[in-house]
Amino acid sequence: MAWLIVDAKFDPDLLENSVLGIAADLRQHDSGLHSHQMGQLLFSQQGCMRITLNESICILPPARIAWIPPRVEHRVQIRGVVGYRSVYLDCQRYPSLADRLEVLSVSPLLREVLERIAFADFSTDWQHGAAANILAVCLDELHGAQREHPLLRMPEDRRLRGLSTRELMPPLHQLARDSGASEKTISRIFRRETGLSYQQWRQQWRLLRAIELMAEAHSLSDVASLLAFSGDSAFATFFKNMTGSTPRVYMEARV
User: Fold this and answer.
1) What is the model's pTM?
2) Nearest of 86, 228, 72 to residue 151 by alpha carbon
3) Are residues 173 and 234 in the same domain?
4) For residue range 51-80, what is the model confidence (pLDDT) as tens digits?
5) Is 137 helix (H, G, I), strand (E, B) or coil?
């Protein structure tokens, strides 16, 4: 069966099929750092996932799909309850798939075919009949999907390694005080290791954290407060400047 119980171990590399799907309801889950020989399409029907790879983080709300290429080490963390879905593909058979991580917007059609694949039996013949047609539609939709850019590079300097566990990212002067490094040193580290100034990086982090909180059903007022905005309107203005959409419109288009 494709439906997994919580904490069940699953290794797609142990099953001999070019396409495999799994589904589960997960709560407070941490996959740990791992990789697999097959490429992976990762998505959820509800809730939000955080993916860490190559010293970068990615927030994955509903109606986005992450493509993780083969042999790329990654970690998936879930804070609340997530309708977890995963589809594994043999990239030797389907070589047109990207060789780098991508996050794609999902259309209603793509969501439906991925759901069908996620619940398909592990022994399904994907080369013939109805299953082959479903897979062909899936691949076509993937190639035409809009690419997004949700990766945020984390600094590797030992003085800043705890940033990924913070609930609130402080202003520069406070971070300097907490880390024991000067503001100038921190600014130089961020430019060198992330390509962004600290302020630019902090704004990107606040955006990802806002999306994560909204996907966990926090109200806009709660998000504004948790991320230290002066009020709802200040948060809404920030979000629209960053994404081109208001928070509600952005999330409604992705749920």
Assistant:
1) 0.81
2) 72
3) yes
4) 988 778 888 887 789 999 999 999 998 877
5) helix
